[in-house]
Specification:
Elements (H helix, E strand, L loop, with lengths): L2 H27 L3 H5 L20 H25 L2 H11 L5 H29 L4 H50 L4 H11 L3 H14 L4 H11 L3 H16 L3 H58 L2
Helix pairs in contact: 3-5, 4-6, 5-6, 6-7, 6-11, 7-8, 8-9, 9-10, 10-11
Length: about 300
Amino acid sequence: MSAAMWGAVLGGALSGGLLLVVTRVLALRRPLLSVRVLPYVRDLDRDPSGPRPATGTGATSAAVGVFGPLLHAAADAVERVLGGAASVRRRLQRAGLDLTVQEFRVQQVIWGLIGFSVGAAWSLLRALTHPGGAVLAVLVCAIAFASGVLLRDNHLSSQVKSRERRMLAEFPTVAELLALSVAAGESPVAALDRVVRRSGGELSRDLARVLADVRTGQPVALAFDRLAATTGLPLVARFAHGIAVAMERGTPLADVLHAQAADVREAGRRELIESAARKEIAMMVPVVFLVLPVTVLFAFWPGVVGLSLVAP
């Protein structure tokens, strides 16, 4: 084949590749219908299992298109080995993460691959200095992958605890604001809207979802019952149940909210006292093993030195 023919083939291949790249970039730049409609239905509680708007860049979309099927297959394998999809879904809701179980399993696989990379790098460096030991290298890589998968699960549990701790910290203030708004003559929905607009935090986000459910036509009592069923905090569940019962039976809502806030403050005070009692023994460790020996040494050492000087 002559040079002109090679030039024509390479030019055609380059033109086709550029055409494909330009076509894909134009398709990625076109906003989806869900992205255009989302600002007008932002108050609605989006179904986590439904379609999600694509917000990534072209490179990210290309990476997802190439490695996505492999990651999803690995995530399915992790799901079959570990199981517990209901528990994971429950913890994702309690952590306030907008993720599905499949997406969480993909994150676990990614963390596992990071651990596998660290184990493989360590095994490669060890192989350069100490040849052999292939079985040990494989075992280290497998343990590193499993450790990464389990570490993401533990991180999810820590996210749940951190979010619930923040919710307990802001709960008395939110309850008092609701009680003041209701006592001022506002309806429960208007008071909830005022508190959601004036506050920010984890509990406010949950109340915003309750408000979105109410605005879509769901009864107020049923929306708070749903909040009580999804939350992992007994105090917040009791608060939601109290509001639901007050709405159904006509109980004065302001008194219920004030009582709920007082109960939460009392529970926080009791937890602080219990925490101090548990840490009292730990506080004795440096006193007994550090301060006391030094004090005894300063008290008896001069006498020992004096006896050694006086003794013949």
